[in-house]
Amino acid sequence: MSFQQALSGLNAAARNLDVIGHNIANSGTTGFKSSRAEFAEAMASAAGSASGQSVGIGVNVAAVSQQFKQGDITATGNNLDVAINGNGFFMLRQPDGTEAYTRAGNFKLDKDGNLKTNSNDQILGFPVDLTTGKALTGTQPVPMSFPSGQAMPAKSTTQVALTMNLDARAHNAAGDPAATPPVAATPRATYGTSLEVFDSQGVATPLSLYFVKTANPNEWEIYTTLDETVQAPGSPVGKLTFDDAGNPTPQPLPPLAIVLNASNNPNNPNPATINLNVDFAKVTQFGTKFSVNDIKQDGYTAGTMTGLNISKDGSIVATYSNGVKRTEGQLSLASFTNPQGLASVGDNKWVSTPDSGVVVAGLAQTGTLGTLQSGALEGSNVDLTAELVDMMTAQRAYQSNAQAIKTQDQVFSTLVNLR
């Protein structure tokens, strides 16, 4: 029995060294999770054996347990690198159509624009509503694909929003000859600004807005140089009034509807009507100089995809040649009731088993899922110092079991040589 005990110890120590060696070999592997050998005492049971009288028959390797503690996260600056900080796995579709899971976020685009791993697995994510940019989490995750040169059609401008200040100290543009001293009339536009808007074909058309102070100290008339094709020349397209605090009134201020006909745009041989809603809710009238802080409009010309980035929430944002950035998909993360039950299949991947429980797909920062860090990778969680110490311990255990076999051999030799 002594030989069997020592032999089981040798096998266990050798298995432990295998696990330690595997950990050390993968100390630089992205997203690698270390393992440890777990041992259990082996006993021989016999009918009628008294408690405390049985001698063990050695040791068994009860399990090789994976350690899913967090690895260090290192910034890489690569747009398509992403690391998980916390719970969760990236979802993959393998070439054979089955699903797998990984913590390695070093993704790449292939020649067809498919987002893949180094082992040619497709990255799964949720499609998005292109209007709202929100992930359609009620659907099944699908492979993320962004064909090179993907086109974005033109969009006509429908909304314009201004953030600006009209100087409350401005005089009535018509002048006031009766004032002391008399106030001369100013040019038609007290203040003005301009921007480009787009028709349904993506042709840019200039839109000029100018503001004329009236005799009412809190009122301004709004004009546009393009309104004369649809309204009588010189007619304002609307008015702005302010309360004594310098805020537009009434509240909430409805947007101003403007119809533009771009027939006088020399850059557009095929003019199209543009229907706009101009939001003046962030226009103020304070006693400071006129300033335009921001102008936003929602139209754009056609463009093609020029770049791709992964955001912290897993949103995959495409940049187009027309300057538009749009969310095209969002990475899905998987969680399991028992990650220890996942089976490692190599290439930084795991597959689910009955012991791992059912996969639950979701978005980063929801439920128990962790957060994402873009432009970074999670490194191996192997602690080299601890592994080297464990290796020395396993080596001592191996030597000790070998010595036990040698000792038993000497005892048997002594018995055989008795005369």
From TrEMBL:
Which keywords describe this protein according to UniProt?
Bacterial flagellum, Cell projection, Cilium, Flagellum
Domain Flagellar hook protein FlgE/F/G-like D1, chain residue ranges per copy: 83-125
Where is this gene product found?
Bacterial flagellum basal body
Using the record's annotation, list all stretches that form the Flagellar basal body rod protein N-terminal domain: 6-33
Name the source's superkingdom: Bacteria
| Ranges of residues in domain Flagellar hook protein FlgE D2 | 165-300
- Does this UniProt record's set of keywords contain Cell division? no
Q: Where is the Flagellar basal-body/hook protein C-terminal domain?
A: 373-418
Q: Which family does it belong to?
A: Belongs to the flagella basal body rod proteins family.
Query: What does the protein in this record do?
Result: A flexible structure which links the flagellar filament to the drive apparatus in the basal body.
Q: Note the NCBIfam families from the entry.
A: FlgEFG_subfam, PRK05682.1-1
For this entry, the protein name equals Flagellar hook protein FlgE
Q: Which organism is it from?
A: Comamonas resistens
Q: Which gene encodes it?
A: flgE
